[in-house]
Amino acid sequence: xxxxxxxxEDCATCQLVVPVIKQLEEDDELAIYSQDNVQFPTGVxxxxxxxxxxxxxxxxxxxxxxxxxxDNGEELARVVGWEKSEWQALTGKPLEFxxxxxxxxxxxxxxxxxxxxxxxxxxxxxxxxxxxxxISTEExxxxxxxxxxxSDGLPVxxxxxxxxxxxxxxxxxxxxxxVGVVPPNLVPCTIEKIAINAVLAGCKPEYLPxxxxxxxxxxxxEFCMHGLLATTYxxxxxxxxxxxxxxxxxxxxxxxxxxxxxxxxATIGRALQLVIRNIGGGKPGGVDRSVFGNPGxxxxxxxxxxxxxxxxxxxxxxxxxxxxxxxTLFAADGMQGIVDQKSRDPESLSRSFAAALxxxxxxxxxxxxxxxxxxxxEHERVYRxxxxxxxDVKNCLNKLLTIDGSELVAGAGGIAEGIPEKLGGxxxxxxxxxxxNIVRAGGSAGMFSAIIxxxxxxxxxxxxxxxxxxx
Amino acid sequence: xxxxxxxxxxRAPENRQPLxxxxxxxxxxxxxxxxSKPKGNIFIDRLEDLLVQKGLAxxxxxxxxxxxxxxxxxxxxxxxxxxxxxESLAD
Lengths: 471, 91
Hints:
The structure holds two protein chains of two kinds. Chain A has two domains: 2-111, Glutaredoxin (3-Layer(aba) Sandwich); 222-469, no CATH class. By secondary structure, chain A is an alpha+beta fold. The longest helix of chain A is centred in the middle third of the chain and has 17 residues, at 263-279. Chain A contains 16 helices and 21 strands. In chain A, 30% of the residues lie in helices and 21% in strands. Chain B is 26% helix and 23% strand. Chain B has two helices and four strands; from the N terminus they run E-E-H-E-H-E. Chain B has a three-stranded parallel beta sheet, with helices on both faces. The longest helix of chain B is centred in the middle third of the chain and has 14 residues, at 40-53. Chain B is extended and about 45 Å long. Strand 10 (132-135) of chain A pairs antiparallel with strand 1 of chain B, so a sheet runs across the interface.
C-alpha cells in the first residue's frame, strides 16, 4: 500500500494538514508532490511538481489531494481537501491531531485558467499527429500564416499546440478520427486537422461540433463539394444551423443574421472554407474556377430563428426533432433582397416573392438552381395572421412559378438565352421538386426578405442540400 | 520562436518554397534590376544583349541604393510590368 499527496504552499488547507502529512510520511510510503515550492512542507522529502506533470496526469483539481495505491501502483481511492473522517477512512489511522474536522481545499494550479491546454500541449502532445512548423523569432507569426498560404485573405489565428488542444476540448471525438475525404486533393480529414483550421478561423471550442458537422455534411457525395469548388458559377457552401445548440453558442438568427458581427456565424462558416482550402487544397486560381465567387466564400453561416415562429424549422422539415441540433449545407450564391412594404395578405406577398424568385439565375432559367427564401419576421407575420403553413407558402409559390414555356424559349422577348424551342408549349416549374426552401431569420423591423439562390447545378446532376445532426 | 501546427495536408515540403519558376521565357517580359552596386550595370548590359538576341522584351530598373531594400513603388512597378526579374549583384 502506498500514498501520494499533492499540495501547494499557497493553500491554507495544505498548511493545515502538514502535521498529518508528516505522520503519514513516517508511517507509510508517501510521495509528497508540491506544485509551487519544493521546500514545502519543510522537513520531509518533497517531489518537485512545479511543472505540474504529475498533477496533470492524475487530473488533480483540488489541493490537498491524497491518493491511495495498491501494490501494483493502481489508484484505489482519493480524498480532496481536508475532511478528517475521510482521511481516517482512507488511511485506516486515527489521525489524532488538533485540527478542525473539515476544511475545503484550494484549486490545483493545474486547473488555473488557461493551464489545462498548456499542460495538454506539453504532456499530451503525442495525441496530436500534425507536423510542427517552426516560425523563427525574426518572423511575425501572423505574417507567417499568410506567407504559408493558410489564409483566405484575412488574418488567421496562429495555430499553436495550446490553441489546438483548447479547441479539441470542444469535442469528445478522437483527434485521429477521419470524418471524410476533402476535395479537390482527396485528403483524409481528421478531427485534429479540422480543429487546427477552426483555430485559424477564430472559433471557440464550443463551436467545434458545428464545424465538424458542417465538414461532414460538405463531404457527403450528394453535396458535391468538389464540383461546387471547381465550378465557374458564383456558389460556395452556406451553413444553416438549427436547434438548441445554435442558441447555446450565441449564433445570430435575427438582425444582420446574414451580415457581420457575430463570432459564431463568422468563424464557423470560415472554418469550413479553410478546411477546403488548407486540407483539400482548393484555392481560387487553382481548382476553384469561379468567375466571380461571392462574399460568402469568406464565410456563410447563420441560424434559423425558431423562436415564436409559426412554421416548423428547416431541420424539422428534413425529419429531425426540434430538440436536435443540425447543420444544413446549401450550395449558395450571394443574397438578393425582396422589398415589399405594402402587402398585408398572403396572396399579394407571395406574388412579390414569386416575381423576385423568377429571376434566379435568369428569368428564363428553370429547373437549374435550388433556392433558400429567407423570410423576415414581419413578412412571416403576414402568413401567420392568415394561418398559412410553410407548405402552403411553398405550394402557392410553386404554382405562381409554373411558367408558360413560350416565355422561356430561346429568342423569346428578343433574348437569345432560353430553353429549347420544343418545350415552348409546356407549363414548366421554375424550381425542381423540393428545390424551394424557406427559413425564417432576420431583424424584427422591416418588411424585407432575402433570396439565397443556389448553384445552377442542383439535384443529382449537381448539389443536393445535406442536413446532418451536430454531435 | 513559435511552433505552429500544420493546418494543411502536409503534402508540401515543410520549408516555404520559392514561387514557381516559368518553364521558359517565351513571350515573357524580363525586368533587369541594377541595384546600384559598382559595375552592376555592365553585367546587366551584357544580360540584356543576350536576352534581346533571343527576341525577349526587357525593361531596366535601378534601385536608388544597394544599401536599402527597393522602394515599394519600384517593387510594385516591376511586378506590374514584368513576368520575371533578374537582379544584378556586382562589385
